[in-house]
Amino acid sequence: MARSTARRRALNTLYEADEKNQDISSLVQERIAYPGAQTPLPEYAIEICNGVAEHRKTIDRMLNSYSDKWTVGRMSVIDRNILRIGVWEIKYNDEVPDGVAIDEALSLAKTLSDDGAPSFIHALLSAVSAHKNDYDQNDSEQSEDSEHAESEPAESEPADGDSEPAEAPAAAEAPAADDVSDAAESDDTIDAPAQFDTEAGDTPADSGRPEESADAEQPDDKPSEG
């Protein structure tokens, strides 16, 4: 199965988990066990979903850092999950060139999102691509801090002479009010795209899901020309 189709199936699953506020990995396991009316999830779709689930905090932190418009929480459900797939491929999947990951995200946005989404997604994923290695050290430090916290009693204090703990990195600033368009105010309640189907077994009850008929004919991981 073409990876373009697998990306769309992954988007279906991420969209549903987001809408239902369900753990991504648990929904993936449900879809593997009970695919319903849909064909079984492709292996690459499962890999994407599990990768996004594993690294979602870092992915969202990167998106918040480089977005000049909206934070992840204010993006439409479709846009933020297209972006999560793109960031995962850019940062965590060395088999996919960054340009291909960006082109595939744009293809999904042009089909499923509004007219302004492709330019926003292109700019944001390009910034993530340019700075993707800036988060390697942050990820390592975060992991070490977590392990240290688990091994130390909560009430323990540093001994005399110990250096002060390093300050946590500042959170990304929320976008200025002037930068948020009137349309953004309704992003969180945007209607699901018309292209989403609602067949039982693979869609949330109140939201649509992307179709996948056209994607199987698309070339596999080939950057668009121009």
Low-confidence parts? 140-219, 222-226
Tell me the span between the first and last alpha carbons.
Answer: 26 Å
State the secondary-structure class: mainly alpha
> Given the structure, what is the number of helices?
7
Strand order in the sheet with the most strands: 1-2
Task: Spell the H/E element sequence.
Answer: HHHHHHHEE
Sheet with the most strands, sense and barrel status:
2 strands, antiparallel
What's the pLDDT, averaged over the residues?
A: 73
Strand content range: under 5%
Shape: globular
The helix content is: 40-55%
Can you give a write-up of this model?
- With 226 residues, this protein is an all-alpha fold.
- It contains seven helices and two strands; from the N terminus they run αααααααββ.
- It has helices at residues 3-20, 24-33, 43-66, 77-92, 98-112, 117-131, 136-151, and strands at residues 196-197, 209-210.
- Strands 1-2 form a two-stranded antiparallel sheet.
- Helix 1 crosses helix 2, helix 1 packs across helix 4 and helix 4 packs antiparallel against helix 5 (98-112).
- The longest helix has 24 residues, at 43-66.
- The protein is globular and about 40 Å long.
- Residues 140-219 and 222-226 have low confidence and may be disordered.
